[in-house]
Amino acid sequence: MISEKAICELFSSMLPSGRANECFESDAEIIRLNGTPNGLFTTDEFSAEDLFRESDPYLLGWNIAAGATSDILACGGVPLYYAHALTVDPRWDTAYLRGLGAGVRDVLKATGARFIGGDCGRSEVWRCTVSVIGWCEGAPVLRRGARPGDLIYLSGEIGAGNLEAALRLYGDRNLQISEPIKTQFPVRLRESALMRDFAACCMDTSDGVCAALNALADLNACGYAVADLPYLAAGLGFCRRASLPEELLFLGECGEYELLFTIRPEREEAFLIEAQKSGCPFHRLGTITRTGRELREDGRTIDLESWSSQARDFASPEQYLAALGRWLDCQQAGAGKTQFPERS
After folding, report:
1. C-alpha closest to that of 19 among 5, 9, 29
2. Could you give the C-alpha distances from 98 to 56, 95, 110, 180, in angstroms and in order?
3. Which CATH architecture has domain 17-135?
4. Where in the chain is the domain with CATH 3.30.1330.10?
5. Domain with CATH 3.90.650.10 in the chain
6. Are the CB atoms for 205 and 256 separated by under 8 Å?
7. 86, 121 contact by CB (below 8 A)
8. What is d(CA 326, CA 330) in angstroms, rounded to the nearest whole number?
9. Cβ within 8 Å of residue 141, ≥6 positions away
10. 4 pLDDT exceeds 60?
């Protein structure tokens, strides 16, 4: 089966380009607006496959819009215009759609973006394809630019997206959760503006923090070492109740839409001063290395290069999580690589 990466590269090589960046080089496509390459464009599709819970329409609308605009923010830009093609589930009534629209509206208010229309349809399976146009003051931040010695920072805690997926897949499973857990993805507008002035490269964590680190390492031909990660408290609580390893919050591919970026060591002090002034907390995860990909937790080191599979390699999320759990068990036992079941 042809991979998603290969499909993107195929069309990028065939079609006349109107962008100023290379394929996969930045989160949003860089386009010329007003004669300068400071325009930004992104399009993304959301559906039940993303494992967003649908019981709260406001949160669903918010999370779709927050996720869609994060590509613009990861380039250091500001969203200007928002459009979507929404395929409606037949069970969604007027009240549900009003709730969904309110979630989208509040993200647009938070970013200053404006809705410019789109398309609407009906199907047994809901889908929402969102396009966002943005603008960057100065050169947009790319995924390229990391080098050994750089410090790795994240704009928030780790695990909201994977917690959302776990709650969708498993529910509470009688885990004695006293109140419903709500996961609302961030809109890091202030953090993006600060990051733009200091970052060597940046990428959002729409596919999880580990996937983002791997993408940056691949693109910049380097490695990384991260340690003592800032996990979301609700995620840790869920993992404890469900007897799941906390590392799944980092390794899973349902992301939290935070900004993952690197800065040069000599710029860290100035960055932290400005971050404190702006009231934006950031988390230092580790460093960019020449080779290797390591997670250090509780005095042990997990070799992340020994896991090369992706969720889409498996027939279901449950199979993927089971294989990932077995691999983690094997790592903790010091056995290195493990054998996986045959993939779909």
Report:
1. 29
2. 11, 5, 18, 22
3. 2-Layer Sandwich (3.30)
4. 17-135
5. 151-332
6. yes
7. yes
8. 6
9. 26, 74, 75, 76, 195, 196, 199, 201, 202, 261
10. yes
Question: Rounded to whole angstroms, how far apart are CA atoms 265 and 254?
Answer: 30
Phi and psi, residue 168, nearest 5°: -70, -40
Q: What is the mean pLDDT of the chain?
A: 91
CATH number of 151-332: 3.90.650.10
Residue matched to tokens 């309110």: 102
The answer to whether residue 97 scores a pLDDT higher than 90 is yes
Question: What percent of the chain stands above pLDDT 70?
Answer: 94
The arrangement of strands across the sheet holding 300-303 comes to: 201-204, 259-263, 151-154, 283-289, 223-227, 293-297, 300-303
Q: What is the DSSP letter of 93?
A: -
Sorted by sequence, the CB contacts under 8 Å of residue 196 that are 6+ apart come out as 76, 136, 137, 138, 141
Q: Closest Cα to residue 74, out of 164, 187, 160?
A: 187
The DSSP H or E segment spanning 109 is helix 94-111
22-50: string of b/e by CB count within 10 Å (b at 16+)? Answer: eeebbbbbbbebeeeebbbbbbbebeeeb
Q: Is 152 left (phi over 0), alpha (psi -120 to 50) or beta?
A: beta
Q: From CA 246, how far away is CA 207, in angstroms rounded?
A: 17
In terms of residues, how long is the chain? 344
- Give how far Cα 241 sits from Cα of 136, 271, 307, Å: 44, 38, 26
How far apart CA 225 and CA 285 sit, in angstroms, is 8
When pLDDT is cut at 50, 70 and 90, the band that residue 341 belongs to is very low
Q: What is the DSSP letter of 199?
A: -
Tell me the pLDDT band of 82, cut-offs 50, 70 and 90.
Answer: very high
Residue 295 β-bridge partners: 226, 302
Annotate 271-319 with DSSP letters as a single string.
Answer: HHHHHHHHT---EEEEEEESS-EEEEETTEEEEGGG----GGGSSSHHH
